[in-house]
Write a structure and sequence with these properties.
Number of strands: 9
Radius of gyration: 19 Å
Helix content: 25-40%
Strand order of the largest sheet: 5-6-7-3-8-9
Distance between the termini: 28 Å
Number of helices: 7
Shape: globular
Order of helices and strands: EEEHEEHHHEHEHEEH
């Protein structure tokens, strides 16, 4: 499945004042491609992700998919910074939630729950509640819940930003492993340039509000194994290229504050 964004613009009305969050944004997410959005605060990254996920509608332009095998809406899995687990549900019950909503039969639910618990390294924690888990473990559950519905597209909004540095690095490595196993088309939002370089097939760089595409950068390095010391200089060069593109906007955004 291929996702196409075509001249997507989003305008908010706030007390009679019109604020343009995004202006004529166009790019594609190809089949099995991991696309990362980066840009300064206020550039509309989360707004754009929510429009791709169908939670918001563009003011103008359109977002559509190509290549679905059947006449249906695409299944979308979403993972957020605040993972949003139900505190009264165990790990397995949280993973089951989307399957229950889809009306998946009990036997198939159990098969998928077991599969994604194993994939995310959650064996032994099936009957634990969210408050009994570390931040990294809670994010693993959130990712397992998103994957269990077997989505056509995975959307991730700053999923690791609240984690400590060590756990974040481990989760980035885990994300590469998961993508290599599932090959899901993915749109991922981050403020962290190094994280973008580590994960992305292509990086879409947005300007300060109104968010416009200022560059689309292919990362021409092997994804599994990108952390090898052989690629340190290349990864640093990509990060520096992105930083130079957004540096002035990021400084201005610091003065203004606010994310749309």
């Amino acid at each position: 499945m291929r996702v196409v964004l075509e001249n997507v613009t989003k305008v908010y009305e706030n007390g009679g004042k019109r604020v343009t969050a995004l202006d004529a944004v166009s790019f594609t997410i190809e089949e099995q491609e991991f696309v990362v959005l980066v840009g300064p605060s206020g550039c509309g990254k989360t707004t754009l992700l929510n429009m791709v996920g169908g939670l918001l509608s563009p003011t103008s332009g359109r977002i559509y998919v190509e290549g679905l095998q059947a006449a249906r809406d695409p299944a979308v899995g979403m993972v957020f910074q605040d993972v949003g687990l139900f505190p009264w549900r165990t790990v397995r019950e949280n993973i089951a939630f989307g399957l229950e909503e889809m009306g998946i039969g009990r036997q198939e639910q159990e098969r998928r729950i077991a599969e994604y618990i194993a994939m995310m390294g959650l064996n032994g924690f099936e009957h634990s509640y969210p408050h009994q888990l570390s931040g990294g473990m809670r994010q693993r559950v959130g990712i397992a819940r998103a994957l269990a519905i077997q989505p056509d597209l995975l959307l991730m909004d700053e999923p690791f930003s609240a984690l400590d540095a060590q756990t974040r690095t481990l989760m980035q490595e885990e994300m590469v492993r998961i993508w290599d196993k599932t090959r899901l088309s993915t749109l991922y939002v981050t403020h962290n340039i190094q994280e973008a370089v580590f994960l992305a097939d292509r990086i879409v760089v947005l300007s300060r509000r109104p968010g416009r595409v200022i560059s689309i950068i292919p990362v021409n390095l092997p994804k599994p194994g990108r952390d090898d010391k052989r690629y340190v200089s290349e990864c640093n060069a990509y990060a520096e290229q992105i930083w130079q593109l957004i540096r002035q906007d990021a400084m201005a955004a610091l003065r203004d504050g606010g994310e749309i």
